[in-house]
Amino acid sequence: MAWKSAEGDKEASRFIPQLETLIKGMLNPKTLLDITRSFIVFQKSKKEDAKTGITQINTEKILAAYHQYYAVNKAIVSTLRATGYKPSLTTPSLVPPRGRERIIGVV
Fold this sequence. Notes:
Layout: H1 18-25, H2 29-38, E1 40-48, E2 55-63, H3 66-83, E3 85-86, E4 93-94
Antiparallel strand pairs: 1-2, 3-4
C-alpha cells in the first residue's frame, strides 16, 4: 500500500509523485522514528513441508499503513486530552478537562 498523505489530514494530490509523498510523509525523521518505535510488529509463522516433514519457522515484519499510523496517533492525543493530561517540558501535570474535551475517540 502506498503512503498517501504527508501530514495525515488529507490524501496528497494525484499530481504529486508517490515517492515525494512517501519521503515527506513517512521518511521525515520524527515520523520514521515513531513508526520504528511503535508501529512495527514481528510475527512468527510455522510451515511444515508435507514431503520431508521439515518444519520452517519464519519471522515476518508487519508495518502499519499510513491511515493506521495517523488514526492511532489521533486517538492517543484525544485520549490524553480527555483524561486531562497536559505534558510540559519539565513535569507532566493533570488538568481536569471540561465539557466536550472529555470525549475520547477519533471522529
